[in-house]
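Task card 7
Instruction: Convert sequence to structure tokens.
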Amino acid sequence: MDLELRGRTVLITGGSQGIGLATAHAFAAEGCHLHLAARTESRLRDGMREISEKFDVDIEIHAIDVSIGDNARALARACGGVDILVNNAGAVPGGSLIEVDEDRWRHAWDLKVFGYINLSREIYGTMAERGRGVIVNILGTSGNLLPSSYIVGVSGNASLVAFTQALGGSSLDRGVRVVGVSPGDVLNERGIKFLRQQAAETLGDPERWRERLADQPGKRAALDEDIANAVVFLASDRAGYISGEVLTVDGGLRWRQRVL
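Output:
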């Protein structure tokens, strides 16, 4: 299926690894030009090289920390003409309410919550003036499942779900769609870290993390590419009347119930 994205320009935060980099590859495969933003320039250059070897698209990289409001606004000015914004940057610590202090909580939200909000505010305004554009927010199923051992992520993702729904509920009146993709467990560096943490808590040994996959649908976690494919579809005109919705990509895990 031709998603008719060729020639469009995409800004992806957290674009140097994991879901962000896989999403960059997926958009490049559709002929999109890219702006990739992340904090580590060396990883951005590695990602740019990977993509350039496969696809003939323009790529600009931005080594920047969007947890700082002025940086987010500067990035928006540098990329103001983008057709698609993918908010993906985030590094949220695990832990309970007692275990995560205020400084760590605020630091995580400055990137994952206010980073999304600040960049969306700037990019959305430009898109609305043009009368077209798409914002895709990468969230997480913890916004639905509410594990207290990940309370910082739970609260942040839940707020971003509401943010996506609230903005997306009216944005199409100005020609802009706002949608979200909510991954479950993903088999990447960050996902394996959390699987190891879960294995330590439930099995007493982080090295047994692969055993956690037995309870996943299909006995596997999602791949970065599974999430990227959902993002690219939602950003395309094939999803042109979808706004304010958050698509969960977890193989149906959150609908499983045990009957005792």
